[in-house]
Structure formats: structure tokens, C-alpha cells
TrEMBL record:
GO molecular function: rRNA (cytosine-N4-)-methyltransferase activity
Keyword entries, A-Z: Methyltransferase, rRNA processing, S-adenosyl-L-methionine, Transferase
Family from the record: Belongs to the methyltransferase superfamily. RsmH family.
Natural source organism: Candidatus Roizmanbacteria bacterium CG10_big_fil_rev_8_21_14_0_10_39_6
Protein name: 16S rRNA (Cytosine(1402)-N(4))-methyltransferase
Length: 283
């Protein structure tokens, strides 16, 4: 039996939304291990799942086949949502779900450098066809590029001093593994708390840069909005403030109406304390 690493959040809350808005056809733009999409397919919904990571796609393709449910899984990027939906031939869609950010599979099972808990190569590509790796970003970006990335992705940090630490470190040693990121953090601060924040932040920004995550988010949200113009439901789960801010800004200038006055927070799991659920409708 294939092990499940990912714990799907807000399952009941999303289920309630699907019922309230009479959803029949759901697109799960971030299928991963099927925690959301496969669960709802087993409950009778027609689901189109999209998974960008080839490893996860292969694992979940077998799960979908074995489940024998009305679920189509496609290897692709939700940034191309319109093309994927059109090629799938499922007709009118009622809702799109985005669980943005990293999957627990990447943190616990992948060997591509997503986790700060083990000394892995700084690959950080969700798709092996991506143009460059995390190592490329941190060793080739100019001082100005690093400053922009860090200031946008890591809060409560002396950005200039951290950039100088990175530049100084890479002048004497290659930055190829997670252990090098930890070494940079130790040079930056003697505080373990600060060191952890630096490592977590650097790995996150490298992942965001390598996988073009923010531009993909904007594209996915826009195409979901266009596909369901006039009637539909868009559901988002975010884990860090920059993701959540991007979602808020997108819908602030759209015709979509928020379902909740404030995003729902998750309280059941310690790892999910920063998770936020938002939903928007168009009538």
C-alpha cells in the first residue's frame, strides 16, 4: 500500500462549500496525493486533477486508477488551466480548488532539497524540466537580485546583512546542499531561532523562484476566473503570508465575492497554524 504523507486541510469546510453551491464538476489544481480531489471523487463529484510534479503524478495516477472513480488526473501546471480543461473535455466546470505551496510529500519523501531537516542537494524543482535549480539561484543571482528575493520573502530579517553573508560565503565555498544554507544561517546569527527562520525562509524563496510560483498563482487564478465567468466557486488554501496576500490582491480587483468575511484558520494540527482557507463566488 502506498504511504500517504499529505494531510488534507479543511476537508469538511470545503465539502460544505461544494454542497452549498451545488458543485458537480470540480478542478483540483494542486492534486498532489489526492487528499482533496480523490476524497471528493469518492463522494460522487466529477474531478479533474492537475499535478505538476512527475513523481507525485505517477503515485497518484495509480491511486486514481485503483479507486475506480470519476476522476481524471493530468500531468501539468495549473498556470495552463484553460488548455488543460479544454483538452480534458469535461465541459462546464463549477469550482476550482488551489492548495498553494509545498506538499508534505516534498518535505518528507522527496530528495530534492525541500526539507530543512536533512542535507539534500538544492534542486527544489517540482518539474525536472524547469530551467534552473535552487543552487543556480543562490550561486548566480546578483547581489541586487538576492536582495529583492529576500526582502520579498523573509520577514523580520536584516536583508542587507543576510545578502552580504551569502555573497561572502559563496566567495569561498559552493552552495550546493542544505548544509550550506545552515552554515550561512550560522554565520548570520548565533541564535538558533533566527538560524531556523533564515534556513526556512531561504529554502522557501529558492523554491518560489525555481518554480515560478507567484506568476503561476496569478495565471491560475485568472484562468479559473475566466473559465467560470458569471457562475462558479474558487477555493484557495495558503500557508504563508505572501501567498495569502497575492490571493487577496487578485480578488480585490475582480468581480468575485468572498464567501467568508475573514479567512478560516486551521487549529487541529500544529503544522497548519498558518493555513488560511478563502472562497469566492461569481453569480
Amino acid at each position: 500500500m502506498t504511504r500517504n504523507y499529505h494531510t488534507p486541510l479543511f476537508l469538511n469546510e470545503i465539502r460544505d462549500l461544494l454542497r452549498e453551491y451545488s458543485v458537480k464538476v470540480l478542478v483540483d489544481g494542486t492534486f498532489a496525493e489526492g487528499g482533496h480531489g480523490l476524497t471528493y471523487a469518492k463522494e460522487g463529484y466529477t474531478v479533474l486533477g492537475i499535478e505538476y510534479d512527475k513523481e507525485l503524478y505517477a503515485i497518484s495516477k495509480k491511486k486514481v486508477h485503483d479507486a475506480g472513480v470519476n476522476c481524471t488526473l493530468v500531468h501539468g501546471n495549473f498556470a495552463n488551466l484553460d488548455t488543460i480543461v479544454r483538452n480534458a473535455g469535461i465541459g462546464r466546470i463549477d469550482a476550482v480548488l488551489f492548495d498553494f505551496g509545498i506538499s508534505m510529500y516534498h518535505l518528507r519523501a522527496s530528495t530534492r532539497g525541500f526539507s530543512m531537516e536533512s542535507d539534500q542537494v538544492l534542486d527544489l524543482r517540482a518539474d525536472s524540466a524547469a530551467q534552473y535549480t535552487g543552487r543556480d539561484v543562490i550561486t548566480r543571482y546578483t547581489k541586487e537580485q538576492l536582495y529583492d528575493c529576500i526582502s520579498e520573502n523573509i520577514e523580520s530579517i536584516d536583508t542587507g546583512r543576510l545578502v552580504d553573508t551569502i555573497i561572502r560565503y559563496r566567495g569561498k565555498q559552493d552552495i550546493a546542499r542544505a548544509s550550506n544554507i545552515w552554515a550561512i544561517a550560522r554565520e548570520y546569527s548565533t541564535s538558533k531561532h533566527v538560524q531556523e527562520a533564515v534556513v526556512r525562509g531561504l529554502l522557501q524563496l529558492l523554491r518560489v523562484e525555481v518554480n515560478n510560483e507567484e506568476e503561476n498563482m496569478k495565471s491560475g487564478l485568472q484562468k479559473a476566473s475566466d473559465l467560470m465567468d458569471g457562475s462558479g466557486l474558487i477555493i484557495t488554501i495558503t500557508f504563508h503570508s505572501r501567498e495569502d496576500r497575492l490571493v487577496k490582491l487578485f480578488f480585490r480587483t475582480s468581480k468575485w465575492t468572498p464567501v467568508f468575511k475573514k479567512p478560516l484558520k486551521h487549529t487541529s494540527y500544529a503544522f497548519a497554524k498558518s493555513a488560511r482557507l478563502r472562497a469566492y463566488v461569481s453569480h
